[in-house]
Amino acid sequence: VQLVESGGGLVQPGGSLRLSCAASGFTFSRYDMSWYRQAPGKERELVATIFSAGVSTIYPDSVKGRFTISRDNAKNTMYLHMNSLKPEDTAVYYCNAWGLGNAYWGQGTQVTVSS
How many CB atoms lie within 10 A of CB 103? Predict the structure, then answer.
């Protein structure tokens, strides 16, 4: 099983980034998928969830209206479109898959929002 995140980097406040999570080794379409993030000295927090069919999503208030989660079950890939980025969005972003009694994590990709 592999979850490989990509697309992180340095961006100025107000900018945008798109993260990708490429999945392999399990039946992607049967798993609910999430993005989490962890800033230095803070606990890991949920950023967005998209359920297996790709229709229903969940966002915390901190990112609602700025971030959009999506998935392409044909490509075994999940995305996170991040707009209007703020310095407080700086963190390592992790891809998570859960379902069928299993939970998988990626290694993370760093997102830094700074001028």
Answer: 11
User: How far apart, in whole angstroms, are the C-alpha atoms of residue 48 and residue 89?
Assistant: 13
Distances (CA, A) of 95 to 28, 50, 57, 78: 13, 11, 15, 8
62-74: pLDDT as tens digits: 999 999 999 999 9
Alpha-carbon gap, residue 81 to 90, rounded angstroms: 15
- Asked if residue 24 lies in contact with residue 92, where contact means CB atoms within 8 angstroms, the answer is no
pLDDT at 15: 98
> 115: exposed, middle or buried (C-beta count within 10 Å: 0-12, 13-18, 19+)?
exposed
What Å distances lie between residue 52 and 14, 28, 32, 59, 107, CA to CA? 31, 8, 5, 16, 21
Q: Is the pLDDT of residue 53 over 90?
A: no
The overall average pLDDT reported for the chain is 97
